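seq as requested:
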Amino acid sequence: MATSTHQKAHTMDLGIAGRTALVFGGSKGMGRACAQHLARAGVSVWIAARTPATLAQTAAELSADSPVPVHWVAADLTTADGRDAALAACPSPDILVNNADGRPPGDFRDWSPQDWHAALDAMMVGPIEMIRRTVDPMIARGFGRIVNIVARSVKSPQAELGLSNGARSGLVGFVSGLSRQTVRHGVTLNNLLPGAFDTDAQRLHVAHMATQSGRAFDALWQERVAATPAGRFGHPDEIGALCAFIASRHAGYITGQSLLIDGGSYPGTF
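struct tokens:
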């Protein structure tokens, strides 16, 4: 029998209503989108970032759009105090989303050891510390989802993003080993590899490139759009939906993977 075109579309039940999630970088961009999709699925979400005013506004907006309230905590993933603050607010998340800003483009000859340590704290050590402190309780409960928002640069490195190339690759390598140990206990670890998305972070990246090259921001922006096979930048909502699925009960057989979401930019077969 043909289905009526007026019939209400079926919405997939992600099977995670009542779970708890901690989303870093959750006040803006891709982190916000991840928090939004999780909250819409009935997950009790805590968003963490550094700026209280932005967090409070985002939490209020997301709460109005979801069946459960969204909470916030001012916490910096890159520092021990920030990680303590996040876990004091959300002590035992079922779902952890690690998400931290990359570092500005540049020439590796100009980077000091301090630059490298800052990059590692943000994109490798901080996320690994959060994994260390949450994974065993997830195993004990028999359910856990750890999703790292990384970058396509771990598969398709850009020379000017050497700090991110190195630090993010370290996180992905670590996750690859641990994910095989936890999956039999219902706990998965996966990485999402976004390409060029229409976010504040993308605008900041292009602004740095414009300053270094002396070229106009708009020209560089349009070049990046044109270079993407999709002919557009990604929308944060698209990575939010993917994150929510990877965190869902349906994705328990997916672990240790680095999933590209880049509009076809990566040129390889594998």
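The CA atoms of residues 146 and 225 lie 30 Å apart.
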